[in-house]
Amino acid sequence: MLFTLLPSTTNWSAQISIIMIICNLIAIIIGRYAIQVRGLGPSIPVSGMAGFGLTELLATTSLGHVLGAGTILGLHNIGLIN
Question: What sections of the protein cross the membrane (predicted)?
Answer without folding.
Answer: 12-35
